[in-house]
Amino acid sequence: MDKFVIEGGTPLRGSVTVSGAKNAALPIMAASILSEEPTVIHRVPRLRDTETMARILTHLGAKVTFTNNTVVIDPSSLTRWTAPYELVSTMRASICLLGPLVARCGKVRFSMPGGCVIGPRPIDLHLKGLSRLGVAIDIEEGYIVGSSRNLKGVPVFLGGAFGSSVLATANILTAATLARGNTLIEFAACEPEIVDLAMFLRSMGAKVTGEGSHLIQVRGVKKLHGTEYTLMPDRIETGTYLLAAAATGGCIRVNQCRPEHLFSLLDKLEEAGLEVTRGKNWIALKGKKSWKALDIVTWPYPGFPTDLQAQMMAFLTLAEGVSSITEKVYPDRFIHVGELNRLGASISLDGPKALVRGVKKLHGTRVMASDLRASAALVIAGLAAEGETEVSRIYHLDRGYERFEEKLSTLQARIRRVH
Ligand code: EPZ
Questions:
Q1: Whole-prediction pTM
Q2: pLDDT tens for residues 253-287?
Q3: Helix axes 309-316, 235-247, angle to 10 degrees
Q4: Which of its termini does the chain have fewer beta carbons within 10 Å around, N or C?
Q5: What number does the ligand 1 atom closest to the CA of 93 have?
Q6: Which domain range does residue 306 map to?
Q7: Using CA positions, which residue lies closest to atom 1 of ligand 1?
Q8: What is residue 121's predicted lDDT score, i.e. its pLDDT?
Q9: Which ligand 1 atom is nearest residue 400's CA?
Q10: Which of 206, 230, 254 is the last residue of a domain?
Q11: Pocket test for ligand 1, best of 23, 191, 335, 397 (most atoms within 8 A of CB)
C-alpha cells in the first residue's frame, strides 16, 4: 500500500488548476444509460471512484472508453440490470445507478451499499422516492430488488432527518425523466452537482426545471438521446487546496474553479482574517502567520459543506483560540480527530460537536488515512506540522483527488508518494 511522506513547514505558493467534480461525474456517468445512444463526457477526473463506476457500467454491458479526461459511454448493448455486492461495496455512491437502471430496464437487482466510516449511510429516501414513482421494491438477502412496468410522475417529498439527500435527489431526478407525466421533487438537494446533473439530462432531451432550488419539476419524455457534456469543476478539491494554503500561511490561486460554489468557505476564511479575492473562474488566497478561531456548522448546500469539515478542522488546530465544529449532516464524521491529536492537535468531541483548542505547533509523525476527506485533513496537517509526517493507506485519497501529490508539489509542498 502507498503512503505519503511529507516534510512540513513550507507555505504553499503558486497556482493550481482543479479537475472536474467527482460528485458530478458519478451521477452523470450513471445517468448516461438512460439513453441507448453514446454519450461523451469531458473533464472527468481519473480517480478510483470514476474507474469503479466505469467497471460497474461495463459489468452492466455498456462500452466505456476513457481517453485522458474524456469518457465515451455507449449503453446501446446494456444487457444486465444487476449490480453485485463485490462491486457496489467498494463504492457506496454506486447507489446512484438505481434510478437510471430501473428507468432503462424496468427492473433492478442491486446490492445494498454498506455503511462507511462517516456513518450508516441509509437509503430510505432513495427507496421511498422510487416506490412513489411506481417501482415495486423488496429487500432480499441484502439486495434491493425492484421492478416497474412503467414509472408514473408524482409529487415526491425527499426531506429526511438530516435535510435533503444529494444522491436520493439524483436517483429520483434521473428516473423521473422517463416516467409518464410530471414529477415534483420537494425538498430536493440544491447542490451544484445536482444542477450539473440536471443540465446534463436536459442536454439529453429531458424536461427539467428548478434545479438548484428545493423544488425540481420533471416532465417525463419517451426517450432520451446521446449528448456531449463537460463537467463542473470540483468545489471540494478547490476548498481542500485553499485550506492547505491557509494552514501553511501560504498564498495561492486556484484556477478553472467556480467561486460561487464556495461562498460559505470563503466567508469563513475571511472571518479567520485571511485575504480572499475571486474572479469569474478563479480564487486567490493570501494566508497569514496566525488566524482567528471559528465556529463551523455543516449543512446541506449552500451551507458549509460536510466534505470540507475535516480539512477545515486541520486548519483550525493552529488557530488562536477555541473553535467549534458541529456536524449536522453526518454526526459521526470525526474519524480524523484521533489522528490529528496524534500530530499534536487538541480536539475533544461532545457528540456531533468538536472543540478545537488552537495549539502553537503540530509535530510530524506517522498517521493513517481512514476515509477520503479525513485523509486530506491529515495531509493538510502534515504540510503545516514541523518535521516529517507519513500518511499511510492513501488509497482513500486516490478515490477523490486526481494527481494530488503532483498538484501539491506544484504549490511547493514537499510531499512524495512511497510505494
Ligand atoms: C453525497 O453523498 C456525496 N457523495 C458525499 O460526498 C457528501 O458528503 C454528501 O452528499 C452530503 O453532501 C456523492 O455525491 C457521490 P446524502 P450522499 O444522501 O448523497 C442522510 C465525498 O467525500 N440520508 O446527501 O450519499 C445521510 O445519512 C462524499 O465525496 C438519509 O437519512 O449523501 C446524511 O446524514 C462523502 N436517508 C444526509 O442524509 C437517505 O436515504 C445527507 O446524505 C439518504 C441520506
A1: 0.98
A2: 999 999 999 999 999 999 999 999 999 999 999 99
A3: 10
A4: C
A5: 15
A6: 3-18+233-418
A7: 166
A8: 82
A9: 29
A10: 230
A11: 23
